[in-house]
Amino acid sequence: MALDDYVWAAGVATDLVNTAPEVWHGEDHLPDLAALSAFADLHSIHTPAHISDLRAVHRLRTTVRDLIDHPDRTRLMTGASALTSPVTQITLTDSARWAVSLQPDTRVTDALSLICGVGILRVVQTLGVERFRGCGAPACQGAFIDTTRPGGRRYCMPGLCGNRVNVANHRARRAMDR
User: Fold this and answer.
1) 10 Å Cβ neighbour count for 177?
2) Pairing of strands 89-92, 132-134
3) Residue-level pLDDT at 160
4) Which of these, 6, 48, 83, 85, could form a disulfide with 117 (CB 3.0-4.6 Å)?
C-alpha cells in the first residue's frame, strides 16, 4: 500500500464508518463475512476475511467514527497512529513512493486499520482537521473525511444523501409554485 495515496485511504475510512447501522436506520451494511469480503474486494484489499474479523472490524468502525466525530488534531494523530500498528515494513519504492508491507497472513481487520490510520494521518497533515465532518443531510447520521480539492463536500455519500436533499428541495420548490 502506498503511503501517499491518502485520498483512497481516507475514502476507505469514510466508507467503513458509513456501513454502520446508525447511518442506515438500523441496518448494518457489514452484517456478515460475505459483506466484509465484498467490502474488502470493492476497495482492493486482498487479505482473507477470518471469522474473528467481523467483530474486530465493527470495533474498528466505531473507533474510526469516534475519531471523525471529534476532530482534535492531537486526538486524531494519536488515535490514527495507534491504528497503524500492523505495519511490518515501510520501504521507498522505485518510483520514489513510500509503501507499507503487511505480513502475508494479515487479517482484513489489520489491513483496514492500517489504511484508515494512514488516511487520517495524511489528511490531518495535508488538509487539516476541518476536513473531518458529519453529513449535512438532515436525516443522515453519516460522517466523512473530505479530501476534495476545495474542501466543500457536504454529504457522506453525495450520490445518496446529496441526491435526497436535492430531490426534497426540488419538491419543496414545486409545491411553492403551485
Assistant:
1) 6
2) unpaired
3) 82
4) 83
